[in-house]
Design brief:
The complex is a heterodimer of chains A (114) and B (113). Chain A has 114 residues and is an all-beta fold. Chain A has strands spanning 4-7, 10-13, 19-25, 31-37, 44-51, 54-57, 64-66, 76-78, 87-94, 103-105, 109-113. In chain B, the strands form two sheets. In chain B, strands 2, 4, 5, 9, 10 and 11 form a six-stranded mixed beta sheet that branches. Chain B has a five-stranded antiparallel beta sheet with strand order 1-3-8-7-6, with no helix packed on it. The chains are: A mainly beta (114), B mainly beta (113).
Chain lengths: 114, 113
Amino acid sequence: DGGITQSPKYLFRKEGQNVTLSCEQNLNHDAMYWYRQDPGQGLRLIYYSQIVNDFQKGDIAEGYSVSREKKESFPLTVTSAQKNPTAFYLCASSTRGPGHYGYTFGSGTRLTVV
Amino acid sequence: KNEVEQSPQNLTAQEGEFITINCSYSVGISALHWLQQHPGGGIVSLFMLSSGKKKHGRLIATINIQEKHSSLHITASHPRDSAVYICAAAKLNYGGSQGNLIFGKGTKLSVKP
């Protein structure tokens, strides 16, 4: 079945370390997204990519980095520069082009800084 | 003011009750999404609407483009419907990139047996 796989589900990181969250999709979607979710807040966009080798910053990109070397993969690195990295991270993908977009979401990664 | 507002924030219902969750938005949109998030965190897309009404099982979603308002209804609610329901607006020309979503903060629904 097609879908999005995020791994790991839970991740613990020591303060000052970089950590990379994985997101893979087999839906042949062009666009991929990373969102952050904090308690009591809506999802906020970190980075998105519409095509391979291209990506744009979202509203809260500071302290994060991404790459899009393959259509299927859009890993997110949480760097030590991110001041408050403990959060729930969701990856999503969508079709791209004129008209309406069907989104598929992953199951998320909960990152805790210890 | 948030561009996408949901109400209520929290909702407790008895099994069998008819439930309505509301979503208002202040921006031009290409579509409005309703999503469901279970306690584990994963999100499932329920509906994508650009006009009118859609139905899937006991779930009904409506949208009024002129009033910039959408509702999600659950008929004959059941404890397994307990989840957070999120509306998200696909904003026209957001960041020059079509397909980006502006999310409401979610409505936490708890259905008691």
